[in-house]
Design brief:
Collagenase (Catalytic Domain); 649 residues; 10 helices
Length: 649
Amino acid sequence: MWQRLLLTATLLLAPLTVNSIKELPGMKNYEVVYPKRLHPLRKREVKDPGQQENFETELKYEMTVNGKIAVLYLKKNKNLLAPGYTETYYNSSGKAVTTSPQIMDNCYYQGHIVNEKVSDASISTCRGLRGYFSQGDQKYFIEPLSLTNQDEQEHALFKHDPEEQKTNSSCGLTDTIWAPGIHLKAIPSTSLATSKDQKAWEKKKYVEYYLVLDHGEFKKYSQNQEEIRKTVFEMVNYINMLYKKLNTYVVLIGMEIWNDKDKIHISSNASLTLENFSKWRTNVLLKRKHHDVAQLLTTVAFSGTTVGLAYMSTMCSPDFSVGIIKDHSPNALQVAGTMAHEMGHNFGMFHDDYNCKCPSIECVMDRSLSKNVPTDFSSCSRASFEKFFEDKLSNCLFNVPLPTEIISTPTCGNQLVEMGEDCDCGTPEECTNVCCDAKTCKVKENVQCALGECCEKCQLKKAGEVCRPAKDECDLPDVCDGKSPLCPSDRYQINGLPCQNGTGYCWMGTCPTLEKQCTDLWGPGSRVADKSCFRRNERGSTYGYCRKVNNTHIPCKAKDAMCGKLFCRGGSDYLPWKGRIVTILTCRLFDPEDSSEEIGMVINGTKCGDKKVCINAECVDLERTYKSANCSSKCKRHAFTRRLLSPLD
């Protein structure tokens, strides 16, 4: 929860036609307003006496909106400007230089209009007021007309009219694309309506987010790094506002600017650009900076109407947790909406259709990304998001970012434990944690701990007590060490351990079997088809292949036939994707309409023979692939750890 500050202002309105500032899409006219800053009701002290805080923790602005007085309540967002924040640029010799700049106080806020049932706000007060707020279904944008740093200067208040914007931009090709060897467990239509995994929603989730700007972005902002920072921080503040609705905090831990030249080939081919960025992130960026997901913001126009593309259901993946976004609008928050949209695909969210219920006019996963500014997630997105947390790969999101990695000025009361804090339960009025002193963010006297799975009634649990039980046979129980209130990092069985009565092998903490994949895709009652069906993969046609290259179906070798198209029998006659359900004798397959070819393909780690598994549509030797010999003769089960072995390249 973010800290607050209270303040009031009156806005004087006068209609005007846009002429002195850039016209924003969907907003032809604006009103000139004069925010009047009144006495702050509360202001928190900074810990460093040598540093003065210029921005209060709670604000109130009073303004006239549509002829009525509205009070905008804002709380400071902690997302920016901590000592652990890093920026990377390149010197004249092309060498990467990473710094941790001390830039300015945190002036980014989120909030709502008081007494309005449906309202959001994402505002920067760095140089006057700049950002977005909504009142009911109506959206507004405010920005200063002068370059001074005073609130009491002219501001433009835009009333957003989506009918004035006729762009036809969309997300990636026809939908999303699946990363090679990565496959989301298909969600039968029944799951979308009945999934109720409350445990995931009870926990806060943290996305450690890294943003890369290409050389075109550097030139777009006239090589002005401060302007780039300001725009990026506004974007991230808005993305964070959206994902907080899912109890998820998007924490920016790094930004990179390709100031000398692009580090990958960026072209109008969005799929190829995404692949290039993914490889660069794996080979270069991850070795330099830990993060959960990375996005590339570019000025290069993609083919057709595409303004963004991301791999599906790959959040936390070391290889494919990426997205690319075209800087398609002068309105930074519309671009931020696209960034949130592509991140949604990383979370396994599909595009919304007519069956999805959106609580606002525009939801994040709408297929047309740039028409409106999204303000919420649909019922389908929430169901897909919840379903995602059944996958072990999501565990990275439950690790609270290290205090040194959070881009924020440490602020007691924002419900995020930062540098120098033992706990943070919000403001004294909000705090319900009897172990934590809300005024100091320290544990109370005679108390050992205030939070964590290994903390109970303000005392540390004994060493050996289970803090995270094993979810299945490919997982391991995790125990407290008696010293820390936090449960140790999640441990899994080593890749290659037999599971499901020998029908599969553990892979990345799961037990992928053909039987389960058929059930996931077609629903209850589905079974694996006969092996004779899989021989169709040797033909290299729409109805059987191992991989697709330039829309050409590449046949499987005989030894790889079990690693291509997935053949099942029985199950539902309805799937939540566009495409054809094909039945050939007793062989049933799904042929997707779009480019998401991994739907209905056998996933990585699936058993394809004795001591053999599918990796990238090939049936390969288990021990060579997982770089380990027969574990049953060399190590004990409890010795297997989370340091998973990756397949060979």
